[in-house]
Every structure is written in structure tokens, then in C-alpha cells.
Amino acid sequence: MTYLGERKAVLSGKLSLCEGRGRYESTLGSTMEEAAVELPVLLIYELDPSWTPTERKEAAREGCRLGCAMRRQGHSVKFLPVCDGDLPGALSAFDPCEVLVFNWCEGLPGVERSEPLVAETLERLRFTYTGSSGETLKLSYDKPHVKRLLGSRRIPTPRWKLLRSPDAGGWDVFPAIVKPAWEHCSIGVDAGAVVCDRAELEERAAYVLEKHRQPALVEDFVDGREFHVPLWGNEDVEVLPTVEMDFSAFADVHQRLCSYDAKFVPESEAYRKITSHVPARLTAEELAELESVSRAAYLALECRDYGRIDVRLRDGVFYVIDVNPNADISADASMALAAGKVGYCYGAMGSRVVQMAAQRHVQNLAPHQ
């Protein structure tokens, strides 16, 4: 699912669905590129029967768009929409030794928080797949665990506290933001999530506890510039051009954030008025620091192949506010837009991800591996 300013990024030109690889020459080497192209790609994506016809049509269209773009790069691509919770059954017709799975499945229909389960199932069935491991995906849903991990690596992240009751205890930092502790994709985040005093904090915490049936995470709300930083790679991690979110249309602190509506509801004011800039407007020194912090967060969570780090800037400090190891790779999302800025057309971007995953495939591993 593609969200907000990623659809509306301020770019000097449009993303190309080109026939060629783009201007950028891969650092993985021609031998690995050839091996990746020779491996048939099985593109799996979620197609939930409970979605509206329009949503299902859009998901199928986006899957076809990526697969066809990779075909133009020379890949053999088959499509596998996942329409129910039986992923092993859907995969039963395929041999793990003969295909590489492009995992674009954000969950199993009818199974809550099942994004990690998709990767775990692929691992159990011995399929090589693109993207992060099930362990990393599961960790990304546990926001308190992520915060502790970042803190242990001395990676700046806003001050936080886990609330298992509405009582705010000794919390005294405002404005603050309150969100579900175990969710993703800004679920439970709206203008009401930003609170400016203890009474608002305790009211919102009670709402999260009742509505989402999980603890509430309260954080210092960094009311500053926000950056979405796409990265890819494994041994050598490359930071792609940064996307800056522009909240200048809003004077109210409650609205200066990427809420669920801002990401996924086109008719909402936030979706329409929050824009973005690629590349972000930063000095060379600021950019170097932002890239250093983002790379450290990517490595701390052991992201694989690609990911996105969301960061806010205040008083010269870049604070990591979210780590997304399964970033959206739709043609109009920040990952593809940033890759386009360094010379990758959409199909070449997909091909680069396949090349990285292909290094883990049984056909390309040395006997001792």
C-alpha cells in the first residue's frame, strides 16, 4: 500500500519504467546479475477478499506493474496472489530450488499482524526470498523492544515510556505522542495522538488500551523536520536520496505528523496537504549525520536487502522515530523514487533487490555455505 507524500514527491522528472537498466551500474558484478536473471522470480502479493473491489484491483495492478517492469530487465516472473491464510498450499506447486520469491506480501488475509509469518513460512519451506527475515519483521512491530535496541546502540530516539494503565506516572514532557506499542503503518495514529498536557495524555492512553487492547507507548513528540531515508544493501549498505516531509500547510502541532489518514486516505486533508521533497534540503554536514544515524538503525535491526528509516530533526539532533524493514516499493513510493534519482528505473530497482536475494539462493551458494 503506497502512502501520502510518496505519491506526491517533488521530483525533477517522473519515474521511468524503462527497457534498460538505468544509468547506474550495479556494484554486485555482472556474474551475479546474470545468475539473478537466470533464476525464475515468483512475485507474491496479498489480495485480501475482504478488501473493496477497488483495493483488490489496485493491489493486482501494482503487482503486475512491478513484475512486468522486471520482465523488461530480462527476468522470468510468475505472479502468485495470496488470497487466504494457506500460504504453504499456495506455494506447493513451486520448488524452492528452482525459484526466488519476491516477497511483496504484507500479511495473510484474515490473519492479524501476519507480516512476519509470511517470511517465517517462506523460511520454513526453504524458499529464498527478498527482504528482511521473519525475526526482523517481528521485532519491528515491538516498538518498546526497538526503542531499547536503538538506545543500547546509542542511536538517538525520542524519550519514551510504556503505559499499561492510563496513569501517566511521572511523565512530564510535552507535547508528546501516544500510540499503540505493537502496531505498524501508523495504525492508531491520528491528530488526537499528539497530547499537550497530562490530562490529554491519560485520556489518549485509555483510548489506546481499550481500542487496541495493548499497552500505549508515549514519546517525546519531536516537532521538527521529518525525513524518510531509504536504504538498500547488506554487506555494503547504500543510503538513497532522502525524502523530506513538508508539514508547512499546518500550524497546529496535532496535525504535523504522518498519521494513518495522511498515508492511506486520499480524501483526507492530511493526505492532500502534506507534500514532500526529494532530495531533502540539507547541508552536506546534516546529510552526512542523517545518513550515519539511518545506517546505524538499519544495521541495528538487521534489515536485509532494503528498508526505510523515519527520522526527525530538532536542535541539531536526528532522532529515529521508526524503522521499517519492509518499506513500500510501489512505483510511486519513496524507495522507487529515491532509486530513480540515482539512475534506477522501476524494473532495475526490482532487479537490484533480486540480485541481493539471489546471493542467498542455493544455486549460488558455495558448498561450505
Structure commentary:
With 369 residues, this protein is an alpha+beta fold. Among the domains are: 9-130 and 344-362 and 365-369, 3-Layer(aba) Sandwich (Rossmann fold), CATH 3.40.50; 156-220, ATP-grasp fold, A domain (Dna Ligase, domain 1, 2-Layer Sandwich), CATH 3.30.1490. The chain is built from twelve helices and 14 strands. Strands 1, 9, 10, 11, 12, 13 and 14 form a seven-stranded mixed beta sheet that branches. A hairpin with a 5-residue loop joins β9 and β10 (238-239). It starts with 8 loop residues before the first strand and ends in an 11-residue tail after the last helix. Residues 1-17 and 19-29 have low confidence and may be disordered.
Please give the structural blueprint:
Elements: E1 9-10, H1 30-38, E2 41-46, H2 53-71, E3 77-82, H3 87-91, E4 100-104, H4 115-124, H5 134-141, H6 143-152, E5 160-163, E6 176-180, E7 194-195, H7 198-212, E8 216-220, E9 225-232, E10 238-239, E11 243-246, H8 260-264, H9 269-273, E12 275-277, H10 284-300, E13 306-314, E14 317-324, H11 334-341, H12 346-358
Parallel strand pairs: 1-12, 2-3, 2-4
Antiparallel strand pairs: 5-8, 6-7, 6-8, 9-10, 9-11, 9-13, 11-12, 13-14
Notable traits:
369 residues; 12 helices; alpha+beta; four-stranded antiparallel beta sheet; disordered N terminus; globular; Dna Ligase, domain 1; single chain; seven-stranded mixed beta sheet; Rossmann fold
